[in-house]
Specification:
The complex is a heterodimer of chains A (281) and B (171). Chain A is α+β, with helices and mostly antiparallel strands. Chain A is 34% helix and 23% strand. Chain A has helices at residues 2-18, 24-102, and strands at residues 114-120, 129-132, 145-147, 152-159, 164-168, 176-180, 186-191, 199-202, 215-218, 236-244, 253-258, 267-271. In chain A, strands 1-2-5-4-3-12 form a 6-stranded antiparallel beta barrel. In chain A, strands 6-7-8-11-10-9 form a 6-stranded antiparallel beta barrel. Chain B has a single domain, classed as Arp2/3 complex 21 kDa subunit ARPC3. Chain B is globular. Classes of the chains: A alpha+beta (281), B mainly alpha (171). The A-B interface holds A 1-2, 5-6, 8-17, 25, 28-29, 32-33, 36, 39-40, 43-44, 47, 50-51, 54 and B 13, 17-18, 20-22, 25-26, 49-50, 53-54, 56-57, 60, 62, 64-66, 68, 70-73, 75-76, 79-80, 83, 122.
Chain lengths: 281, 171
């Protein structure tokens, strides 16, 4: 009996495989399928609500897992975007410093200037210093000027083997010989001692002309003159925003807003040099 | 006997329709339950090898017709499955509590292997990894879940086949 059934199955398979789609066995299958069709349709209709419920539940689970996957993707992509943004900022900063380094104004430092990453920014209003990732091994010395592509940042005040401490212009001890780039009026740029990053061009006589909007730059080495300096000449410092006078003060009151944002420094250029230092008075 | 055949015919007709229209579309963890196979195991285990083989042939024929597959393909596999499980029931398995579970698990694996071999012989596409690795574990689990309710239903529908009287030695 079983052998007959197996033989019948094999015979059906053989005939079905060998005959054309219009063959007898195909016709039988087609007719039988037509007989079964109403039952299949009925079963489908009966089962449809249950299938819908099942699919709805499955979709919810699928949507939940899909949501989790997408959230992970968004998180990864957000981190990637941050990394890309940081890389772009870093590239722009380095490109700006490279441009400065190659500019004619700093041609004396073209081979010796050192680009350094800022390791730590000022920690408080009273400690306006920062640490940079370059030191004695890179040729940096105390009193080297530190700049960005926007202007003067400060001066190296301490040098270790691979790091250095930079005192910012906004430090109360900082003083830079500077001049009005348009009129040539010379003074000393110092911090205003207030909570803001405001500077003052001090020691400018009342007979010298300084106007609002004028550019203030470093005066450079004034050898033999009243105000000597370690800073090279012509480094932008800021812009005059207010000029005033009082009867009791022999000097003008010149307020300068620095070009550099001292709170967000990532890379700086140290104008290192092998030249001998000017003698301070 | 005639009543049992009629019941089996009707049962596999309903089960085959359900399998083709509803059960086959339930996909869980890559597999889907095989209601026909589990029902066949239950019927063959309780009714014997011949009954199992005929039921398998009938169920396979219905599925081949409904799915418009190669006629005889599923019939051959289910005939052999029904006969083998029937023989197992007639010899050792019928009264053992674990027989339904063991039978369903083993037949599910053998059916998958047999189906692969048949597809291979007929030169039809049959990725073995999908059938044996991706689908088979979940299919076994789902078939085992169906085992007890289906066996309960089959026991209600069919009376166990009468055993030949055992010889008792006395004296």
């Amino acid at each position: 009996m079983v052998g007959l059934l197996v033989l019948a199955s094999l015979a059906m398979i053989t005939v079905y495989f060998r005959e054309s789609p219009n063959g007898g066995l195909h016709d039988v299958q087609s007719a039988a399928s037509s007989v079964l069709r109403p039952f299949e349709i009925a079963a489908n209709r009966v089962a449809q609500p249950f299938q819908d419920a099942y699919n709805w539940t499955a979709d919810i689970f699928h949507a939940k897992s899909e949501n989790e996957r997408l959230q992970r993707e968004v998180k990864d992509m957000r981190q990637d975007a941050i990394r890309v943004s940081e890389a772009v900022d870093e590239r722009n900063a380095l490109r700006g410093l490279l441009k400065v380094k190659r500019s004619p104004a700093y041609e004396d430092f073209a081979n010796t200037a050192v680009t350094a990453e800022v390791l730590s920014n000022p920690v408080s209003q009273f400690d306006q210093t920062m640490v940079i990732a370059a030191g004695r091994n890179d040729g940096i010395r105390v009193y080297d000027a530190v700049i960005t592509d926007r202007g003067l940042v400060g001066q190296v005040s301490k040098v270790l083997r691979d790091t250095a401490l930079v005192t910012l212009l906004t430090d109360k001890e900082s003083a830079v010989t500077a001049k009005d780039n348009r009129t040539g009026a010379i003074g000393i740029v110092q911090h205003s001692q207030g909570p803001e990053d405001l500077l003052f061009l001090d020691h400018v006589g009342k007979d010298r002309r300084v106007d609002r909007g004028d550019l203030v730059v470093t005066a450079g080495k004034q050898s033999g003159k009243r105000l000597s300096s370690f800073y090279p000449r012509g480094i932008p410092i800021g812009q005059v925003t207010r000029v005033g006078q009082t009867d009791v003060d022999p000097f003008q009151d010149v307020q300068v807003v620095p070009f550099v944002d001292f709170t967000s420094l990532d890379y700086v250029l140290v104008l290192a040099s092998h030249e001998p230092r000017p003698k301070m008075p | 006997m005639t009543l049992s055949i009629a019941k089996a015919g009707a049962l596999f007709f309903v089960v085959s329709i359900l399998q083709v229209t509803i059960v086959a579309s339930i996909g869980i963890l890559g597999g889907s339950p095989d209601l026909v196979l589990v029902t066949l195991v239950a019927v063959a285990l309780t009714q014997g090898s011949i009954f199992g083989a005929v039921s398998g042939f009938w169920a396979g024929l219905l599925i081949d017709i409904a799915r418009l597959g190669t006629l005889g393909f599923t019939s051959l596999l289910l005939t052999l499955a029904g006969f083998w499980i029937g023989r197992y029931g007639e010899t050792t398995g019928r009264d053992r509590a674990h027989a339904p579970v063991i039978s369903v698990a083993v037949v599910t694996v053998l059916y998958a292997l047999g189906s692969l071999v048949m597809h291979f012989l007929l030169r039809e596409p049959a990725p073995a990894k999908v059938a044996l690795v991706d689908e088979l574990p979940a299919t076994i689990a789902l078939n085992l879940l169906l085992t007890f309710p289906v066996f309960a239903l089959v026991k209600v529908l069919f009376k166990p086949a009468q055993r030949p009287p055992e010889v008792e030695f006395v004296g």
